[in-house]
From TrEMBL:
A single MF term (Gene Ontology): siderophore uptake transmembrane transporter activity
Protein's name in the database: TonB-dependent siderophore receptor
Residue intervals of the TonB-dependent receptor plug domain: 61-175
A single Gene Ontology CC term: cell outer membrane
Main location: membrane
Family, per entry: Belongs to the TonB-dependent receptor family.
Amino acid sequence: MSQHLGRAVTFRRHALASAAASCLSLLALSAHAQAPATGEAVQQLDAVTVTAEEQLRQSLGVSVITESDLEKRPPANDLSEILRTQPGVNLTGNSSGGSYGNQRQIDLRGMGPENTMILIDGKPVLSRNGAQMRRSGERDTGGDTNWVPADQIESIEIIRGPAAARYGSGAAGGVVNIITKKPTKKLSGGVTLYGSTEDGGGDTRRAGFNLSGPLSDTLSFRLYGNVAKTGAEDIDTNVGADGRFLAAGHEGRRNRDLNGLLRWQLTPDQVLEFEAGFSRQGNIYTGESVTGTTDPASESASAQLIGSEVRRVYRQTAAVTHRGKWGDLGNSRVIFQYENTRTANCQKGTAGSGDGNCNSTTVFPVSALKNYFANGELYTPLTIGGFRQMLTTGIEYRKEQLRDDNVAAWDASAATANTLAFYLEDNISLSSKLILTPGVRLDHHEKFGNNWSPSLNATYELTPDWTLKGGIARVFKAPNVYQTNPGYRWSSMGNGCNGLGQCEILGNPDLKPEISVNKELGLAWNPNNGWSASIAYFRNDYSNKIGTDLTFLEFNPSNGLMTTRWVNTGKALIHGLEGSFTIPLLGDEGRTLKLSNNYTLMFSNKSKDTEQPVSIIPKYTLNSTLDWQVTPQFSAQLHGTFYGRQKPRTLNVANSDVPITEGGLAELGAYAMASLSGSYQFDKNTRLSAGVTNLFNKKISRQSNNSQSAGAFTYNEPGRGFYISLNSTF
């Protein structure tokens, strides 16, 4: 993977030139107009202070996956497969009790999936918010990393640490920005076919197409589509030595995607883009729910549904983007996006009462989530006090509206969330060696008031080869609509209430936002000869984390149940080391053969009050890739990942007064995974890729779907697999 920090591509961010931002930049423009405009000064500005956000992309907490990386090692279906190979990236469930149904999501620096913001071309993807939030913090969702086919991606940027503060609520862990391919200058297209098979099930078949090119001198277009199916794991995947069924394996997934973009070059300096997309994802049921697992050998109604599609997610988007150049005032970008997600789940128990296993596919209660997003940024070059700068001013508006037919007492009046944000970021070249990037963001949430997110990032060139980088920022996350809605009720269906029988967890409108203060300090070495290395210390001081705790149970006389609410829990400390090390072995700068490594070492990932983990993640992770360009047409890769020991919780995830015993304390020891891949370019239009995943067939099996008895064995690691992919273009 590309770990060269100086090569991060410009982040395709959303932009809107607000009146306030424009006025501020105009005031600064007078200073810029008085500055000498020598060719040398302009060249220095282009090289050092292109934009404030581009400078942040050079921070040590940023890594990039390129189009070439995706071609050499294509993911079967979900991008999380390749994202997990980057430093600071893990796959976990939303809670520290393990993932629901093996549906792990991207977790940056141990802050959990809910603190990872997913973007597509700078536009937020929030479809997973339409999945219900359960007592342990889990959602019935695979996340938002599977809406764009891999062959339609130009690059992916992963931003961790203080640089992510500018993106506001939901970015406390970091940001993943998926950058898609743009319309081409001449008519072109292509077809991609992919097939894989795995030991234990989970086979994938995928087909996609794309078409792009000009319609006239000023109009061009891009169209792509994708059809994919990943099968469910075999029903005996998690069967114990005694033949007892322990837990369900990975669910299967069916995908349908269609996206179109029309670009209109209004003038040489003005571009307008219209984009619309539709996606459908359906799961293939393996018999698991939050509260239990159906043994496939049983004769229950739930067992009869195994292999059926019991969850369907429909996502529709429409967006308009304007980019412009305004002379001395700078460049701007404006984005408006509408996102509509409908999630239809099989009926589980009684509507609004709990989470049993699926018992019917004739009733599909729907949660309908609508998101409205408007954002804009203006990038203005200026000089103040003799210092060359690039000022970024921005304004952003988000509106979330949710309706859930699963919840009988849903309070529609409390099911909206509106946020208005303003932010400034200035990239200041204080000298030829020191670049300072201060920033501040103000989010006004209609329910939680004002939240400030100040940040400060700096880069200092110690020598031409060594660079010192650091940053600090305050980030917040607003409670989600389920957690604050007083009409949202989750029932235990008689389980897990301190032996008192059935209880329920209610929404709490009095919650406070979660807060994280993120710090980062490190060194980068890049002598421009193929060698490179970096090391960074990161620390996140996390407070007000939202969860449930059954120690606060109260009797509800209206229905005779014990009740509790979502609450703000104590503080947590998450800190560790990240880094990379690239060794050229053959050829100029290692172009023939090189070894690329990245690593993450976690010092702490625990609550300060209870000593419980925020996420169950490895003590360390080391990713190593031996990349061999055998001939100009043929390349091969040997990839290995080494995971350190994983420790489970010792206290009940929803009741810190109840200790976990016996199998629930089982640790998952260190293990390694290896894969081998190759890619052959027959000509400029045809490429064949093939490979072996989990080369040595190292399997990890879940020990239970109950997070209190699975220990750290909360997910499946699939067995050995083989894949082949053919890409043909014209």
